[in-house]
Amino acid sequence: MNVIVSPLAARLAPVVAALGRELVVVDVGAQTLEGEAHVYAPLGGLGVPVRLIGFEPLAARAAARRAEEDGSVEIIEAFVGAGREEVFFENNASGTSSLLRLDPEFCAGFTSLAGLRTVGSARVRTERLDDLLGHVGAVDFLKLDIQGAELAALEAAGSVLERTALIQCEVEFAPIYQGQPLFSEVELFLRRAGFMLIDLMTQARRAPVVASGRAGAEQLLWADGVFARRADLVSDDGLLAQAILAAALYDKPGIAERALANHDRRHGGRLAAGFAGGGI
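Predicted structure:
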């Protein structure tokens, strides 16, 4: 039987071979949301071997994810955060449950958010990524989606960030939760930690509640920020990982080629030319 290899898979194959190991993906907020594929799902179809470590605090959701993956991934039940006791607020839409309390006054101003309600709460112990991932070496891709608590998790992950190549972090532009850090605070923290913003993906705009009812999805409320570790700080493997992820997940061949060119300059290789030309 002939195996059909996609053009992108063929272009990435030498990069994957140069990496020589599984791509390490850490998913903080790993539950599967209805109608949404996991951002790293395309990697498998491109022949990129992946080691996935996911964190999901709710037992039922964690069990569902394990079943979905047929036991092939490591799903850890943990509230990722600052490493202290906090209150977890469970909302009627499980994907909005958070370590932060909803801001009902703000949510009431948008048609798709007005129905959100907190239905329960519990005191929980949060755990630091530096402790949870102490046994893990390089983190090639760190994805965070924990409803406004991302900055607290990042602030408690100093050691992890030093060995992380690329981050996708949900960022908010308006206070859906009380006291939540907004995009500017997250971006500034990551910039100081050695990362630069590449793009804002999956931008979510919502319609304001107005008397006429004539409003579209007009206000940007949140997005997924993609941040790459600076070339002068990232490891050799990190440059290869950045190239794979930029091309495979975000359709950014120029970003991928630039990462490979930086790798080539360190080692006298020709990965960038091979990737850009479609083969070596």
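Summary: The chain has one domain: 7-271.
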